[in-house]
Write a structure and sequence with these properties.
By secondary structure, the protein is mostly helical. It has two domains: about 180 residues, MFS general substrate transporter like domains (Growth Hormone, Chain: A), CATH 1.20.1250.20; about 190 residues, Growth Hormone, Chain: A, CATH 1.20.1250. Helix content is about 85%, strand content about 0%. The two termini are about 35 Å apart.
């Protein structure tokens, strides 16, 4: 029976991806309805990110008290309610109100699920599960497009995704005995369960600051690359808009496909080796962006950069129990998730300011600085945690 839990976790990771890409896909139809500037999506994204950061930091206490299964089911239910709320909103302030459960539902489930998989499953599943997140981010815009093509409104598209989240919530609720059985088995094997750590105690763990900065840099790099790749190709390399948009999309395609492939590579390489492999491929991709000459170098560089990103996120997460111990991994993954969302929120904005006031040609150098900081922090993390064990 416990083996039935793994397919449920795969479905849960798809549910994580469903809301993540929906707002961006639907926003061109949303903002004219409410009579607000197009830039107001940034305010909604800020509210969602703020909720996600707060719930990530609370994930350790929530998971210890209620268990991963309950936290996952309630979190997916919160996002389903938020999506229904979006579809029923009649004013922009109502969207802002529903953005709060939207973000709160995303953060705690992200941290709780990642920690659960890191503790109970092999590294290959972490890669494949994050590939499923990518599948979720592809499904929701496709559903929205199909609903719009059928002549319905964006609200109907949101309701369709909300219904999918509701079905996934019901599946998760039905699976609660499986989570409890797996947790009971794990507790009998390792009966010592520590209390939840305060933030100060987490930061005092050897390597905690390093892993937080490493994760911050990675997520800042991934989001900046995804948000600004198309503009860089168009403004600095003279690539036609249509071609630039297609290859910017291939950056994320490289991440999703790369994670599917990385699941098999983990049979031969451990987490640290996977991270270093990803950093090496990512460096090659960024260097290709710096090369003068044919546009092919820049286009291939983005695909390489996406493939290089693929193993880094899941491998950092999966290695957390090894570096910090199973008793501390939930707390550490919580601050990793929080730092990830801070990086997602702030660093693309910083590059936007640099592109406007200096030049968008700084794009690959900006990515290279983030990569160098990530490599440095990861090396320090490995050394510090090895010496403390």
């Amino acid at each position: 029976m416990v083996s039935l839990l793994l397919p449920v976790i795969y479905l849960a990771f798809i549910s994580l991806g469903l809301p993540d890409s929906l707002q961006g896909a639907a926003w061109p139809m949303i903002y004219p309805v409410f009579g607000v500037p197009v830039s107001y999506m940034g305010f909604l994204s800020f509210l969602i990110s703020l909720g996600t950061i707060l719930s990530s930091l609370a994930s350790d206490r929530l998971t210890r008290r209620f268990g991963t299964g309950v936290v996952t089911a309630v979190s997916v239910a919160l996002t389903a309610a938020a999506l229904f709320g979006y579809s029923a909103s009649g004013a922009f302030w109502q969207l802002c109100l529903w953005a709060i459960p939207y973000g709160l539902g995303a953060g705690s489930v992200d941290a709780a699920l990642n920690n659960y998989v890191a503790l109970h499953y092999a590294s290959r599943h972490m890669s494949w599960l994050h590939c499923m997140w990518g599948v979720g981010t592809v499904i929701s815009p496709m559903v929205l497009s199909a609903v719009l093509t059928a002549g319905h409104s964006w609200q109907a598209g949101y309701r369709a995704i909300a219904l999918m989240q509701t079905v996934l919530t019901l599946i998760l609720l039905c699976s609660l005995p499986l989570w409890q059985r797996r947790s009971s088995a794990a507790s009998s094997e390792s009966p010592e369960v520590s209390r939840a750590l305060t933030l100060r105690e987490v930061f005092q763990l050897p390597g905690a600051r390093e892993v937080m900065l490493c994760f911050f840099c990675y997520c800042a790099l991934e989001t900046t690359a995804g948000n600004w790749a198309s503009s860089y190709l168009t403004l600095s390399k003279g690539v036609p808009v249509e071609t630039a948009a297609a290859f910017a999309g291939l950056f994320y395609g490289g991440i999703t496909a790369g994670r599917a492939v990385c699941g098999f590579i983990t049979f031969k390489l451990n987490d640290t080796q996977m991270i270093r492999l990803g950093q090496f491929i990512l460096a090659l991709g960024i260097l290709a962006l710096l090369l003068p000459g044919p546009r092919f170098f820049s286009l291939a560089g983005l695909v390489l950069a996406g493939a290089g990103c693929a193993p880094i996120y899941p491998s950092i997460i999966h290695s957390t129990p090894e570096h910090f111990g199973a008793q501390h991994s939930q707390a550490v993954i919580g601050i990793q998730m929080a730092s990830a969302y801070v990086g997602n929120l702030t660093m693309p904005l910083l590059f936007g300011w640099l592109a406007e006031h200096l030049s968008p040609a700084l794009f690959p150098l900006y990515l290279l600085v983030l990569l160098a900081c990530m490599v440095w922090m990861h090396q320090r993390l490995v050394r510090k945690t090895a010496s403390s064990r």
